[in-house]
Amino acid sequence: MRVELLCTGDELVTGLITDTNSTYLEARLFDLGVKVERVVLVGDVRPDITHALLAAASRADVVVVSGGLGPTSDDFTLECAAAAAGVPMTEDARVLGWLRERYAERGMSPNLNAGQLRMARIPQGSEPVRNPAGSAPLVILTLGRCRLFFLPGVPREYRALLDGEVLPRIRTWLEAEPGRMHRAFRLLRTVGMGESVLDQQVMPLAPSHPRVVFGFRTHAPENHLKLMAEAPSQSEADAALAAAEADCRRVLGASVFGADAEEYAAALLEKLGRAKATLAAAESCTGGLIAQQLTAVPGASSVFIGGAVVYSEKMKTAWVGVPPAVLERHTAVSRETAIAMAEGVRAACGTTYGLSVTGYAGPGGGTPEDPVGTVYCALAGAGMPTRCERITLSGDRDRVRLFAASHTLEMLRQHLLAAAATP
User: Are strands 374-381 and 353-359 parallel, antiparallel or unpaired?
Assistant: First the structure.
């Protein structure tokens, strides 16, 4: 099955917003063993959208289109679809009823204005599907042998319709394909390993797994290994995938923190919970990124007790107890300060572990001994000597902060792995 994606909107081609819908769909399709053939971005120009629809429909079996279904004058994607199909636009009574119900539920007048009425007009012969998360419906249109799905561009609505309506249809069509190959997929997530190193580690295994395609994806600060097995039966595909995954895990070891949809913070918190441990963090240059990542996970409060953004020397002393003499003698960016921060926040919060990070994120600051990009990360824990690591990071301020937070958390994860493996 050939699948293409088409995203419309001037905001996408002028850099005002980033296209996250395509990456979400690409990942979900890859779970089904489908690799997207092409992604096209088109601005709000009617002839360009019409031409892009016709071109995609001539190549693909399925085209997923996002954007341009709303109530404003620049939402004309469906009008372009009607032009491509050579059919008129018609007001659909079902969509009209859905819109009135939705606005009534929100306490708005059921008497729709001209803009709202636009969302009830769809190409003649197309199929509307109710939007559970918004107003504009999903619209399904057939051009030749190609099925086109038109979805709202709002990510929340897009994902609801994609997961609830589009992907189940695609899965059914895949299963009905005569003589189709069966596929199995696994995404292994690594951290602390560069993309080229990951490639060098696993590609020597590829000849031993001829039914498995090896691929790579960077999602800073992580690097992911994509494994897709293909075979005449599902059991054969599953077996081929399992063998390749086992070999890859063997060579990658503790660098693999999770698989498929498992996120780093959730994996770390789960390990803390299993160890019946608690955590606190003191952050300087990362400005709360560690706490932000951890608290994004529901239930994090059972193990993450709290954190302090101690950006100034005054707050390093006031909130996490860094002795003024340490700051005066060694400066705020130093091994001694990082150790004092980790130990201080652990003592203040009464936790099993304390993490700290302090450094020069740039673009200013730094010293000849510790230039911009220098970061000190520390881990304090019950019954263990406090560890501190000095790292040097390249890139802009955002990259330094992101990788500093990642390295600090990874110090704790590796410690938990080692502790669990110790009899």
Answer: antiparallel
pTM of this structure: 0.80
- For the chain, the structural domain boundaries read 3-176, 182-259, 264-421
Where does residue 117 fall: left (phi above 0), alpha (psi -120 to 50 degrees), or beta otherwise?
A: alpha
Task: Please say whether the structural domain 3-176 has been given the CATH code 3.40.980.10.
Answer: yes
Of the options 3.90.950.20, 3.40.50.1000, 3.40.190.10, 2.40.30.10, the CATH number for the domain spanning 264-421: 3.90.950.20
**CA 32 – CA 183 distance, rounded (Å):** 7
In 132-288, alpha helices (H): 155-161, 167-176, 195-202, 234-252, 264-274
pLDDT (tens digit, 9 = 90+) per residue, 119-153?
A: 999 999 999 999 999 999 999 999 999 999 999 99
Residue 357 pairs in a beta bridge with 283, 377
pLDDT-derived band at 106 (thresholds 50, 70, 90) equals confident
Predicted local confidence at residue 5, as pLDDT: 97
Helix, strand, coil in percent for the chain, rounding step 5:
45, 25, 30
| φ and ψ of 214, to 5 deg | -100, 130
Tell me if the bond preceding 221 is cis, omega within 30° of 0: yes
Rounded CA-CA distance 90/50 in Å is 18
Q: Which amino acid is at 180?
A: R
Mean model confidence pLDDT for the chain = 95
pLDDT band at 262 (very low <50, low <70, confident <90, very high): very high
Q: What is the pLDDT of residue 33?
A: 78
Specify the residue for token string 């304390």. Answer: 354
Q: Regarding the domain delimited by 182-259, which CATH topology (the fold level of the hierarchy) does it fall under?
A: Alpha-Beta Plaits (3.30.70)
Q: Please say if the pLDDT value at position 395 is more than 90.
A: yes
Pair 155, 24: CB distance under 8 Å:
yes
Q: Where in 112-181 does DSSP place strands (E)? A: 121-123, 127-129, 138-143, 146-151
